[in-house]
Amino acid sequence: MLSLTAISPEVLARYEAVIGLEVHVQLLTRSKIFCSCSTRFGDPPNSNTCPVCLGLPGALPVLNREAVTMAMKAALALNCAVHPRSRFARKNYFYPDLPKGYQISQYDEPLASAGWLDIEVAGKAKRIGVTRVHLEEDAGKSLHEGFPDSDRKSYIDLNRSGVPLIEIVSEPDLRTPEEAYDYLTRLKTLMLYLEVSNCNMEEGSLRCDANVSVRRAGRTAFGTKTEVKNLNSFKFLQKALAHEIERQIGVLEEGGEILQETRLWDSREQRTYGMRSKEFAHDYRYFPEPDLLPLVISEEWKEEVRRSMPELPEAKRARFVDQYGLGDYDAAQLTSSKALADYFEEAVRRAGEPKLSANWILSELSHLLKEAGKEIAESPVSPERLAELLALVAKGTLSGKMGKDILAEMFSTGRAASEIVAGKGFEQISDPEKIAAVGREIMAANPKQVEQYRGGKAALLGWFVGQVMKATGGRANPQLVQEILKKELGS
Asked: Going by CATH, does the domain composed of 432-490 fall within 1.10.1660.10?
C-alpha cells in the first residue's frame, strides 16, 4: 500500500469520503432499562446487579418508563418522527461481558426515525439526516490488567449491563472529519441541554462508531465501507477518520480492494487496524423480544414530553441576539452549553448589562476557568457576584483594569467584590478636583515637559496621563484624567 505520507494533495482531491456516525448515549436514569438496579458510575464492580441484568434463567425484563421519556426527548430534539408503535428485539452475539448471549435492542421497528441535525460548513448550514433513534441496553465492561500479554488478566464488571442507551444513527451525509467533529459536538450539546445524559466520554456515557468509505469525486455510488470503533474522544474521531480515509485511498490507488470490516483506532500508533470482518444484520439473528410487549406511544404522552423540553441551543442563540443585542459569534459561544447560557442570563438579570456581561464571561472569566481547569458550573465566582463587580465597572467606581484584578482575587479567594474593594481602597477616583490637584503637582514638578507640550509636542499628553495614573495607584478614571490634563496644560 502507498505510504500515507506519500499520498499527495492532488491524489486526495480525486476522492470523496462518505461518513456516517453511530452514536451511543447513556441515559441519565437512576435505574437500569429493564430492572431496578442502580446506574451509578464508579460503584464497586458487580455491586449493581440482579437476576435480570445478570441474565439468569427465568428473570423477566420490565421497561423503564423514564428511559422511554428521555429517548423521546432526544428524538424530538433531532426532528425525528416518534412512532406510535415500536418493538424490542433480541440481537444475538457473544461477548464475555454480555451474560445473556444477546442484547435487547430495537431493529426493524425503532422508536423514531427520519430526523435531522444542522451543522455549519464554510459559514453555511448543512443538514445531516438522522436515520433512526432507538433504545437498547448496554453490555457490561471487560477490564484488562498486566503486561505483556502472557501475564495479562481480564475481569468482568457487570454494573454497566442493562444501563439504558439510545443509539443515534446518522445518514451517510458527512464528507470530512471536520464535519463529523461538528456533528458530534452539536449532538453532545443537544443531549446536555435536554439533560438526558452527562455525555462523559471518559465514563463511556457517549461512544461513537464511524462508518467510512471513499469514492471518486463526482460519483454517486458508495464505496465499500469500514466501521471504526474505539473512538473515545472527539480528537480521536477526527484523527481516526483522516487516517482511514487516506488508508482506503492508498489501497485503491494501488489497485487493491477495501474489505468490509470492523477496525479499531490505536491512539498510540495513530492508525487503524483490522479487528474482524464486518457483521451483517442477519449475523445477529434478530427476532422480536418475547418477554416484552410492543412499545406504544400515545399522542398525549408525546405531547407531554414535548411540553417538558427546554429551550434548545439554536432557539436560545437566536433569542440572545434579539433580546440582548449580542453578535452572532458571542451568542453562539454563550449558548454552547446550557450551564454557560444560564450563568450569563443570571448575571444579566442582576447587573442589567448584557454586552458587558458577555464580554467579561467570554474573556476574563473564561481565561481564569481555563487556567484552573474548571467548567463554568464549578466557577468560584457566582453570576450574582460577577454582576456586583460589573455594576461597579459600569458605574465608573472601578476601572476595567481594577475590575480584572479584583475578579482574579474573587476567583482565587471566593470573596465578594465589595469586600475586596473596601479592604484595599480600590475605588476609582472620579472626583475632578482631586485629579486636577494631582495633575497640577506633576506639572509643577516637570516644567520642561509642560513647556514642550505647549510648544507643540502633543504626544507628551500620554506621558502626563501615565504620571497621574502612577501617582494615584491606577485608581484615577483614565478618560477623566485626559480631559482634565488637556484643560490644565492648555491654560
From this structure: no
